[in-house]
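User: Round two. Same drill as before: sequence, then structure, for each protein.

Assistant: Same drill it is. First protein:
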Amino acid sequence: MRIGELAEATGTSARALRHYEQAGLISSERAPNGYRLYDAAAAVRVRNIRQLLDVGLTLDDARVFLPCLDGDVAAGPASEKGLRVAADRLAVLEARIAAQVAVRDRLATALRQAAVGTHTSAAAPPHRATGARARTVA
């Protein structure tokens, strides 16, 4: 099947398929006219790649699963290397979430402080350049 047919069959884009191929996760033959041709098994492989990406793994992470991409990735026995890759990716995601929560908390605190400052200095005119109101000092 051609790249557009594979894209349609797997719910992905031709660009993503070319990216997977460049990453060495799928392969194609070339027709005499230069078009990429994929065998029917490529659809299973692409669906498995998409499943791995959907749970937060990267294309580099997916390389660990190359031996089982042509079968049912979710139903197969977990390999030690696959579990290690998934645990490492989970740790990265948790660190990113913690960093984002910290940023959110700092922003929420700044907004609360700004709201308190606005209520105490409502009579102060806004600064000409910035539009910010001066705080009243007691």
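Second protein:
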Amino acid sequence: MLNIVKTTIVIATTSLIFAGNAQADVNEALQNICTIVKADDKTELRKKMKMVETDFSLKIKDYYAGVSCGGNSLIRTAMLSNAVETGTLIVKKMPKSDLSTPEQDGKTVSDWAIENGLADSALAAVLKARI
């Protein structure tokens, strides 16, 4: 009985250690994603998304909410930077339901765009067509 308890504790501890390392690696892999979006480098963004999907089995919907670029989401950052190519890629890769879900500040991307005078931008048009 005591061996079972010891084994369980060892397995649980090992799992937590590896889970912590995996999280740190994902954060490291996504470190420059904001810069890529701001630069409107669609090719580099595609590579980054593919690498994260291959290495960590995560799609953009899995990490989108956890990425903040100066307090803004990736789509908001693309709108502010007029990064139509990268913004369009993100919009197309995200599930439609997630695009109309309120973000951390309680506003949807569309509502935020209207409030910030970006409702007439090319990326806002892509977003509206997708929703």
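The radius of gyration is 18 Å.

User: Perfect.
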